[in-house]
Amino acid sequence: MSLRQMEYLVEVVERESFTRAAEALHVTQSALSHQIKALEREVGGPLLERMTRGVRLTAMGRAYFPHAELAVRSARQARRAALAAGGARSGELHIATVHAQAIGVLPEVCARWAREHPGVRLVLHEYATTEELSEQMARGVADMALGPPPREWPGPVTVVGQERMVLVVPHGDPLAARESVRLAELADRPWVRCSLEPLVGGRRWLDLECERAGFTPRTAVRTQHSSTAVRMAAAGVGVLLTAAHELLGLDCASVPTDPPWHRDITVFSRVELTGAAAEFTGYLSAAGTTGDAGT
Length: 295
Fold this sequence. Notes:
The chain has ten helices and twelve strands. The chain has helices at residues 3-15, 18-25, 29-43, 59-85, 99-102, 106-116, 130-138, 205-212, 226-234, 275-287; strands at 48-50, 55-57, 91-98, 120-127, 144-147, 157-169, 190-194, 199-200, 203-204, 218-223, 240-243, 253-268.
């Protein structure tokens, strides 16, 4: 079996269509089908189930696909890394991140990169949770990832900055005029909880700190996306703990915690970063703490 055949399989699965995959690969649909069938003969059984609308993996395909996907993505990364190390000033740099970082420090850094490296196109892969980010990076989706420190990551992890965590309330809330707030003062308040809350030792930081303050936070609503959580808190649904940079341009108040709390932001990857990936990491380190937002 060839890497090209595995690449064809990955494209068909990701696009859920032979027609769309053939267009993306710039080959005829008949040539694509021929290569997939040849791969299935080598593997020893059907990998795809052809359906009226689209395709899906068979049981054998589900077992085979993760390995093929990793091989294809690793080969692409290897080529990009080799070109970058060889001094090439063109191509692509794939960056995986959570949505909160995509709207935080990345716009400023990407703008600088575009000015100084117009030949190297950036491709962002955004995910809702840090768990999904780590899972996708393990599958080889990108050259590097930007986010909170991953748990038990086997590859290089580099701290590139910090983000300041704040409490979010509506402007009319009594807390809005405060310079800081201790969590113990919020024992009777409802909370907006988000899947992107910071973790410490595998536990949500908010749960740990509230436990130390002598109470369990009462959840009013739980969201998947931080941008949704911010709007819920701004509307008065409950108090939210989030990164200050996520409030830029939004009509709400932010209040620092007492004591103040920051969390590290890291770059992590499957292999040591070289070329464009290493240089982009330097840009992130130079940006330091992610953008703040006032009240």
